[in-house]
């Protein structure tokens, strides 16, 4: 059998009982059966099981710190809880090899798909997982429900990070960066030859943006998880089901029309590589909670907002429904 089909076959296999026991034993050893260690380790594994890209060591440690506490409102307060060495020590058996010298490289991922299945079966729901020769349909339904719960879990963490006071108080770009952004960028900044750029279908974004001017959100005090939260919370937002609807107050505050917070995460969202030149147009002044939810939220989330939000509040644009419809049909 060819390698790729075999790999797919192994990844689709259900988790053997023996492997489940091995993972449980490993986790007990790594956490020394300490409840706080177990909470940190399980939170880290849940995050790695649902994220849309590899995280850096620092990103993971920051999101774990936020995921294991409920009463943090500022970046500085959260920073005091971050311990990346402890996090990595607790989960090193469950992740692929990492270069510890580069704590900001996007490299942390689960070592195998079976670890994700282990997480779904053990840490996402309090419902006991059934073993034995039972019909797969109920088991598949339970896994789907737990996956939805995991999406709600990471969305909540992303939302709470974007709601930190600092992110709503200071702007992402300094005046100097705004001025620099208006200048031509790239290696031919002083070249007057404006020939057309040849399209390369194999060019990656990293290669395309290699010569562009970069910025670092940590310089503005937004620290390590701001980029992921800004760029990927919408990907999790679109998966939310009726059983896991976040509070309207949360979404309305993140997307409050004209707010610094909305401008900050939108400006970062269209610059996932942290280049001053955006990858796509995303103008924050055009959006409010309804338009963001209409474009990027799930059907369940949009229905909840239409039924329960008051669109004459300050957080919404005038004629919000018409503006949202316009954005959808653009």
Tell me about this structure.
This protein is mainly alpha-helical. The protein has two domains: 17-123; 165-182 and 203-329, no CATH class. The protein has helices at residues 3-12, 17-31, 35-50, 57-67, 75-79, 84-91, 113-122, 136-162, 175-181, 205-208, 226-237, 248-254, 260-269, 289-296, 299-308, 320-328. Helix 2 (17-31) packs across helix 3 (35-50), helix 3 packs across helix 8 and helix 4 (57-67) crosses helix 6. The longest helix is centred in the middle third of the chain and has 27 residues, at 136-162.
In short:
The protein is an all-alpha fold and 330 residues long. It is built from 16 helices and no strands. It folds into two domains: 17-123; 165-182 and 203-329, no CATH class.
Give the tags.
330 residues; mainly alpha; 2 domains; 16 helices; Genomic scaffold, ProqFM164S03
Would you spell out the secondary-structure blueprint of this structure?
Elements: H1 3-12, H2 17-31, H3 35-50, H4 57-67, H5 75-79, H6 84-91, H7 113-122, H8 136-162, H9 175-181, H10 205-208, H11 226-237, H12 248-254, H13 260-269, H14 289-296, H15 299-308, H16 320-328
Helix pairs in contact: 2-3, 3-4, 3-7, 3-8, 4-6, 8-11, 11-13, 14-16
Our count of helices gives 16
Proportion of beta-strand residues? under 5%
Unreliable stretches (pLDDT < 50, length at least 5) are 126-136
Could you estimate the helical fraction of the residues in percent? 40-55%
How would you sum up the major sheet?
Answer: none
Query: What does the radius of gyration come to?
Result: 22 Å
Number of strands: 0
User: What is the first-to-last residue Cα distance?
Assistant: 48 Å
Return the structural class: mainly alpha
Order of helices and strands: HHHHHHHHHHHHHHHH
Mean pLDDT: 87
Shape: globular
User: How many domains, in number, for the residues?
Assistant: 2
């Amino acid at each position: 059998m060819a390698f790729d089909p075999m790999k797919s076959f192994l990844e689709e296999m259900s988790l053997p009982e023996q492997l489940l026991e091995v993972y449980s034993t490993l986790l007990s050893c790594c956490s020394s059966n300490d409840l706080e260690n177990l909470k940190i380790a399980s939170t880290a594994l849940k995050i790695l099981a649902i994220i849309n890209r590899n995280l850096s060591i620092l990103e993971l440690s920051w999101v774990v710190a936020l995921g294991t506490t409920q009463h943090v409102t500022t970046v500085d307060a959260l920073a005091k809880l971050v311990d990346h060495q402890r996090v990595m020590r607790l989960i090193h058996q469950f992740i692929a090899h990492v270069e510890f010298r580069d704590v900001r490289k996007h490299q942390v991922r689960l070592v195998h798909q079976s670890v994700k299945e282990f997480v779904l079966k053990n840490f996402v729901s309090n419902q006991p997982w059934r073993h034995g020769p039972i019909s797969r349909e109920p088991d598949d339904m339970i896994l789907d429900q737990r996956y939805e719960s995991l999406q709600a879990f990471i969305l909540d963490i992303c939302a709470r990070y974007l709601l930190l006071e600092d992110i709503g108080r200071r702007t992402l770009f300094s005046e100097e960066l705004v001025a620099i952004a208006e200048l031509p960028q790239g290696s031919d900044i002083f070249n007057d030859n404006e020939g057309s750029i040849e399209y390369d279908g194999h060019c990656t974004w990293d290669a395309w943006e290699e010569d562009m001017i970069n910025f670092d959100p940590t310089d503005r005090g937004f620290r390590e998880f701001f980029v992921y939260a800004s760029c990927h919370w919408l990907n999790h937002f679109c998966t939310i089901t009726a059983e896991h609807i976040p509070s309207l107050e949360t979404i309305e505050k993140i997307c409050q029309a004209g707010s610094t917070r909305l401008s900050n995460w939108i400006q970062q969202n269209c610059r996932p590589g942290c280049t001053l030149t955006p990858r796509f147009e995303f103008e924050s002044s055009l959006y409010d909670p309804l338009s963001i939810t209409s474009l990027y939220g799930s059907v369940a989330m949009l229905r909840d907002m239409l039924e329960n939000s008051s669109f004459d509040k300050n957080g919404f644009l005038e004629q919000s429904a018409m503006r949202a419809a316009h954005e959808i049909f653009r």
